[in-house]
């Protein structure tokens, strides 16, 4: 091959390689943007699982379920403009979701002033009970630092009730009309919601079930045992543990 033709061929190959490299870089950039966009609408753990497997497995699994709910939400909202309530809820959801993620859990849903999170699914989580208890305590503490009347004379802050239960639940996607919703369903979820509901009549910030307490160990320091407690929707009385702070 003549020297000029060889030089042109080498240059053409270099250009082709550079174009291919640019295409790969652009594809990677677009992929990262898609992942970031997905994380804005689904829990981080769900996005990670989809990134690895392109599918979420539905199965029965032992999990710890946490419910949290703002205390006095009705009175907070009825005396404020909608924009003010929206800002308070935004600060609450940002705080709570950061705590859950920091402790390895997955936020399943926010419903106004309420939140549900799961520890131990979709990713396996060692010491899920301890993580859920520590997350619950952190939620109580950090939500309690959110000021809702910074300009007022009393400097009011939010308060929250938290319930945690551990046991088997069916975790996976639930089909809606236009989307799939990942959740955890079963008695464990119902029990966690009922325990959160007990925080108001007991006037305590957090209630956990006996299964969680037994597995969480020293994370439950400061909890007090209550035996033979009746819970709406559960026929037998149960043992619970309440955080007295």
Describe the structure.
The chain has helices at 3-39, 44-53, 73-78, 82-102, 128-143, 187-202, 210-216, and strands spanning 59-70, 106-111, 114-119, 160-175, 180-185, 206-209, 223-229, 238-243. It folds into 2 domains: 1-41; 57-243, Alpha-Beta Plaits (2-Layer Sandwich). With 245 residues, it is of the alpha+beta class. Helix 4 packs antiparallel against helix 5 and helix 5 (128-143) packs across helix 7. The longest helix has 37 residues, at 3-39. It is 46% helix and 26% strand. Residues 37-41 have low confidence and may be disordered. A hairpin with an 8-residue loop joins strand 7 (223-229) and strand 8 (238-243). The chain has 7 helices and 8 strands. The protein starts with a helix and ends with a strand. Strands 1, 2, 3, 4, 5, 6, 7 and 8 form an 8-stranded mixed beta sheet that branches.
Radius of gyration: 24 Å
Biggest β-sheet description: 8 strands, mixed
Unreliable segments of 5+ consecutive residues = 37-41
**CATH class assignment of the largest domain:** Alpha Beta
The total domain count is: 2
What tags apply to this protein structure?
245 residues, alpha+beta, Alpha-Beta Plaits, 2 domains, 7 helices, 8 strands, 46% helix
Quick overview:
Helices cover 46% and strands 26% of the residues. It has helices at residues 3-39, 44-53, 73-78, 82-102, 128-143, 187-202, 210-216; strands at 59-70, 106-111, 114-119, 160-175, 180-185, 206-209, 223-229, 238-243.
């Amino acid at each position: 091959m003549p020297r000029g033709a060889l030089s042109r061929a080498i240059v053409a190959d270099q250009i082709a390689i550079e174009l291919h490299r640019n295409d790969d870089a652009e594809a990677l950039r677009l992929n990262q943007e898609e992942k970031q966009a997905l994380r804005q609408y689904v829990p981080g753990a769900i996005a990670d699982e989809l990134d690895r497997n392109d599918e979420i497995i539905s199965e029965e699994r032992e999990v710890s379920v946490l419910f949290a709910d703002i205390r006095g939400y009705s009175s907070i909202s009825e005396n404020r403009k909608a924009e003010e309530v929206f800002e308070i809820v935004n600060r609450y959801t940002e705080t709570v979701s950061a705590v859950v993620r920091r402790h390895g859990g997955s936020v399943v849903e926010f419903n106004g002033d309420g939140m549900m999170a799961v520890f131990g699914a979709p990713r396996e989580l060692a010491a899920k009970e301890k993580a859920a208890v520590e997350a619950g305590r952190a939620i109580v503490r950090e939500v309690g630092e959110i000021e809702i009347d910074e300009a007022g004379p009393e400097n009011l802050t939010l308060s929250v009730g938290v319930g945690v239960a551990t046991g088997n639940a069916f975790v996976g996607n639930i089909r809606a009309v236009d989307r799939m919703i990942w959740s955890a369903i079963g008695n464990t979820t119902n029990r966690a919601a009922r325990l959160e509901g007990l925080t108001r009549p007991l006037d305590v910030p957090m209630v956990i079930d006996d299964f969680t307490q037994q597995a969480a160990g020293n994370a439950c320091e400061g909890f007090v045992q209550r035996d033979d407690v009746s819970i709406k929707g559960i026929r037998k009385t149960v043992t619970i543990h309440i955080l007295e702070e």
